[in-house]
Amino acid sequence: MPTAPRPAPLPRPSLTERRKAETQLEIARTAAALFTERGAAVTADDIARASGVALRTFYRYFRTKEDAVAPLLAVGVQQWIDDLAAASPGPDAAAVREVLEQTARRSLTPADEPAVDALRWTRGLLRAMPADPTLRAVWHRVHHEAEEALVPVLARLTGAGPLEARLAAAAANTAMRVAVEEWAAGGGAPDGPQGPAALVTRCMRTLTAGLPQRDGADSREG
Question: Which CATH class is domain 70-216?
Answer without folding.
Answer: mainly alpha
